[in-house]
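Annotators were shown the component list below and the corresponding predicted structure, then asked to write short factual statements about the assembly.
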Amino acid sequence: MRPALFSAILLVLFGSLLYMATGLHFGHPAATEMDDYFIQNGQEQTATNNIVTSIVFDFRGFDTLGEATVLFTAVLGVGMMFRKLHSGEEYAND
Amino acid sequence: MQMTKIVRTTADLFYPFCLTFGLYVVLHGHLSPGGGFQGGAVMATGIALLLVSRHYADITRYIRKNAMSLCEAVGLLMFIVLGLSGLVLGGSFLQNHLAGSGSWLFGSTVGPGPDPGTLATSGTVALLNLAVGIEVFGGLSIILLYMLSGLEEDTP
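Structure shown to annotators:
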């Protein structure tokens, strides 16, 4: 494919994506009941001044457990990749 | 692989402050911006400073893979045990049963409206921050140690 044609297609795709993004209403959610509840009652219920931390570690604590598990799994993967080879063992693709 | 004396001296001077600031960010997670993940990353930066400035064999005498691995496992287990304590004492998994209970362990109440806040608030949120901080510190440090040990095998 010629570079000029490729650039034109890319430009059209990017432009249409940007045009669609201008139609979205950022900062105006359709339902605000849950946000209002957190802002009104979060500080007293969790006794936490930092409302972001109160949501991450209290209201949505189970998600944070998942995040911690993701990090644990990533470390497991790195450990398997960089492990010491046993004597006589070789990399499969060498 | 060892860097120049300037880099080594700077790292030696700087890493205690790095660890202290990371611990501050973790412990004040319920009062100021930051928290367990961010503070743990700052603490791991202090370890990274030491790792890149010195010989791998020298530094692994003080920073061991087993200790960092233990840190990571203890952090995740502490998180799960705190969640189960909420299940037993509060009624649901990760229930914040210490918040505003008046106990000596982060149990002070917080009124509505803005106030500077004290360290002894927020119940299990502070303890969960500490657990995540320990886990991220151990996890990022052991990733760096693994990568450096792979580098060390190639360059004699």
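Statements collected:
1. Chain B has one domain: 5-154.
2. Chain B touches chain A through 45 residues (CB under 8 Å).
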